[in-house]
Every structure is written in structure tokens, then in C-alpha cells.
Amino acid sequence: MAGMTSSARPFLNRRLAEFGTTIFAEMSALAVRTGAINLGQGFPDTDGPEEIREAAVRALRDGLGNQYPPGPGIPELRTAVAAHQQRRYGLSYDPDTEVLVTAGATEAIAAALLALLEPGDEVIALEPYYDSYAACIAMAGGTRVPVTLRPHDGAFRLDLDELRAAVTDRTRLLLVNTPHNPTGTVLTREELTAIAELAVERDLLVVTDEVYEHLVFDGAEHLPLAGFPGMRERTVTIGSAGKTFSFTGWKVGWITAPPGLATAVRSAKQFLTYVSAGPFQYAVAEALSLPDSYFDALRADLLAKRDLLASGLAEAGFEVFRPAGTYFVTTDIRPLGESDGFAFCRALPERAGVVAIPNAVFYDHREAGAPFVRFAFCKRTEVLEEAVRRLKSLPV
């Protein structure tokens, strides 16, 4: 019979059996179906700098990148990434041997974990975690070990004792995300120092996702983990153009790492996309050279939007964890008489015409994330104002 197979095995391999359609796809489809304002998926609703968009158009017209670019990325972008790390953080990388361009940060995560893990290796990740972390660890045959960030004094904080206790003889790698999605936490110098000391003491590799590096507020400071003593030689740092320049569809990311680690990641990456985003790589190379005024203006704009949404959510009855970084606000729905984030988010488009994301999807310990809901504020001011107006109509 057509469509039948003699195999009794499921089509999807067992490593990915727990991963269905992502929550982002589900909630974005719900937004389209209901006409709700989508504050769920983290993409801006306006494009980035016009001169950078024109740089991509110019590259297309000039035939730059229309054919396969070099496997590690075009030299101009690798040089720009290295210059950015040097200028911003005093970190020196060789663009020829220590920089690799990827299809966004998501591929960088996948390639790093596929390259560096053997089946059975344990990976410690800060929970709640970006959902692709769990899937990529699974694809590599690793075992994820979550260490939970917990609410404390209006923010989500890392328990360093819990982190240390999670390390075993099977631990291969620490997967660190700061500024942290979804909680908005920015790890402090003291926390990063402790993480670095632990990695050196236990001889652990570290993959650090720093895609929100330029989106920090209220005096918070982004400190690359690779800059701490003993860390450069064991750290793969991931960056991305999407969050910094508001061109998320271009999917241009990169890693910086010492030659041995960079070569290992490249070995995996070449069998994923091989290469991607040729003309956009030229544009991003120019973007990374934008003056400080661009980055300052981006931060100021998002700070104003953060405060608009956070204040509106508080007035609507949510408990709000005002983020120190990223462009997401995490809220607690229990003051609204709710406790199930999944049910709340699935009903919210009909109740208030707004879409959000339940944080529980980012947890292994689902009960720890059950009452938390994430809203994105990387939208036009008038969209946020309308979303706040609608949310204030929720009964408390």
C-alpha cells in the first residue's frame, strides 16, 4: 500500500525523538492564524542599517559571493571579526587559523558540539537554555546536564556551588550563554572568574554563546570568557550578525577559537552547510566596522523598548524580571492567578491578541520553568505600545 513501510522503527532517530516542531514555529504560526502581535520569536520587525543592506546589494551586483565563498568564510569577514575582538575586548585572533564563519550562531553551536563531543560525554548547560542546545547535544550523542538559573532579587542567578557539583569525570564541556537567553541575565566578572577557574581545574572545554554581546543595559558589562586566565586555549566563542545588526535572515555567524579547536569545528561545519550567505558576508564585514555610535544607538533604542514593555507588563499584573541584556523580558504569571506557562501562552492570542513563549520549553526541569513566560521587545515602539494596551485588558 502506498505510504506504508515494512520497518517497525520510527522514522525519526531516537536521539531526536523528544524534539518535535520548535515552540517558535508553533507560536509564530499561532500569531499568523489569530492575527496576534508576535512578541514570541526574537526577530526585529525592522531592518538594520541601510548602508549595510546596500553593501549586500552591491556585493550581489558586483558578483561577490554569488558562487561558493571560501570554506572558512571570506577573508574580509574573518579579518573584521578578528579586528572586532581585538578592538572591543583586547583578544587577538589570527583570521586565517582562528576564525570560522558559520550559517548563523545555530550552526556554530551544532558544529562545535558535533566536533567536540563523543557519545556519552556530559555537557553542562545553564538552564533555561536556548532550545537548539539540547538538540545539538543529542545529535552529538552527548548527555546534557542542566544547572538551573533561579530567581533572586529580581534576576535569575547562577549557583556556583551547584555548577561545581554538576561536574563529573564524564564532563567534557561547559556550554555558557551570556548575555543569557531567555532570562536576560548577564554573568558578572565574579561568576565568570569562577567558571573559568572550574574549567581550568577540571580541564574542560567551553563553548560560549555571546550573540547578545552588544545588547547590555544598566551598566552591565559583557566580558568574553576567553579573556579570563587559562581560557583562550580551551574556549570556542560564538558571535552573530543577526542580533547586533537586525538582519536575522542573513544567517551569518562565526566562531573564534585557537587553531586546534577551530580546525575541529570546521571539520564538522564543512559537512553541514559547507558554505553560506556569500554576498551577506561582505556586508557583515562592513557592519563590524561601524563606529561606536551605531552600537550605542542600538543599545539606547532597545533600552527604551525594554523599559516600555517591562513597565507595561508590570502594570498588567505580571511579575517582571527586568533584563540586564538580550532583547527578552521574562515574567512570572502567578500574580495573574496562572501557573502553567504553556496553557497561558496558547490561550493568550485569543485572550489578548499577543503571542509569547513559555519558558518551560527551555528547561529539563519543566516544573522550575512552569510559571515563566518570555516576551521579545525588539519590535517597533508602536507595536509594543499596542501589545501593552492589549495585555492590560487581561483580568487579574
Secondary-structure-derived class: alpha/beta
Give the termini separation.
55 Å
Number of distinct beta strands = 15
How confident is the prediction overall: mean pLDDT? 95
Question: What's the helix-strand series?
Answer: HEHHEHEHEEEHEHEEHEHHHEEHEEHEH
Largest sheet: 7 strands, mixed
SS field, number of helical segments: 14
Low-pLDDT segments, ≥5 res? none
Strands side by side in the biggest sheet:
2-10-9-8-7-3-4
Shape: globular
Fraction of residues in helices?
25-40%
Radius of gyration: 21 Å
Strand content: 15-25%
What characteristics describe this protein?
seven-stranded mixed beta sheet, four-stranded antiparallel beta sheet, 15 strands
Explain what you see.
The protein starts with 22 loop residues before the first helix and ends in a 5-residue tail after the last helix. It has helices at 23-34, 50-61, 75-89, 104-116, 131-139, 160-166, 189-201, 241-245, 259-269, 278-287, 292-315, 341-352, 366-369, 381-391; strands at 37-38, 99-102, 122-127, 143-148, 150-152, 155-157, 171-177, 205-209, 235-240, 253-256, 319-321, 328-332, 354-355, 357-358, 372-376. The strands form four sheets. A seven-stranded mixed sheet has the order 2-10-9-8-7-3-4, sandwiched between helices. Strands 11-12-15-14 form a four-stranded antiparallel sheet. The mean pLDDT is 95. The chain has 396 residues and is α/β, with parallel strands linked by helices. The radius of gyration is 21 Å and the shape is globular.
